[in-house]
């Protein structure tokens, strides 16, 4: 029997068990196809992304102490507790998590008023995020950082120091005109800030690109008033 954790709440808290391992849906590449008159074959444009995938769990609920309507209501409240994307984990892939939205399921069957079965469905972003990619890596001197996956990630970087400094991550260069100790550079949302203060005006990006951690090895160095950096790499795979 398996376990599902959605929106930081475990299925066992609601007398739920997963009866079968879920199937694995391979993400579909997001691309556009265009037919051109007089040309053999379609023109394919790769949009550089992947489409969402579905993840379904066949679950059973059961408790001698609770009646079916109470358990069914608990399950419904749990699944509807998330707004937008919420974290989804299960015991079948303990090293990963997904970002998922609950999709409506069918009826929960009533078995002798103390048990039931149904299938719950989640609409997931295509990435499987490594839990290790949420751990902070502290860098006090220049060196290499190895991406363990084949996919480019968008890290969160906290910069320590004062004055003026430069940060190099692979081919990406960030010049900081005024360092605020503890300022955060978030490549996913393409923003730099300290607490609630926006600091985009104090940085200059090479080619207007926020730093990325590409597949393989990225050489990281910093100079000037930067004393250290902390990186949450956000490793992911499909």
General description of the model:
- The model has no long low-confidence stretch (mean pLDDT 92).
- This protein has one helix spanning 68-79, and strands spanning 4-6, 9-10, 16-18, 29-34, 43-50, 53-62, 86-90, 96-103, 115-124, 128-130, 137-139, 143-147, 156-169, 172-179, 183-186, 191-194, 197-198, 203-205, 216-232, 236-237.
- The strands form three sheets. Strands 1, 2, 3, 6, 7, 8, 9, 10 and 20 form a nine-stranded antiparallel beta sheet that branches. Strands 11, 12, 13, 14, 15, 16, 17, 18 and 19 form a nine-stranded antiparallel beta sheet that branches.
- It folds into two domains: 4-126, Beta Barrel (Elongation Factor Tu (Ef-tu), domain 3), CATH 2.40.30; 131-237, Sandwich (Jelly Rolls).
- The longest helix has 12 residues, at 68-79.
- The two termini are 25 Å apart.
- The chain is mostly beta strands.
Q: Architecture of the largest domain, CATH level 2?
A: Beta Barrel
User: How many distinct beta strands?
Assistant: 20
CATH class of the largest domain: Mainly Beta
The helix/strand series, from N terminus to C terminus, equals EEEEEEHEEEEEEEEEEEEEE
What percentage of amino acids are in beta strands?
Answer: over 45%
Number of helices: 1
The stretches of 5 or more residues where confidence is low (pLDDT under 50) are none
Reported for the largest beta sheet, the result is: 9 strands, antiparallel
The proportion of residues forming helix, as a percent range, comes to under 10%
Count of separate structural domains: 2
Distance between the termini: 25 Å
Mean pLDDT: 92
Oligomeric state, counting identical vs distinct chains: single chain
Report the structural category. Answer: mainly beta
Please tell me how large the radius of gyration is. Answer: 23 Å
CATH topology of the largest domain: Elongation Factor Tu (Ef-tu), domain 3
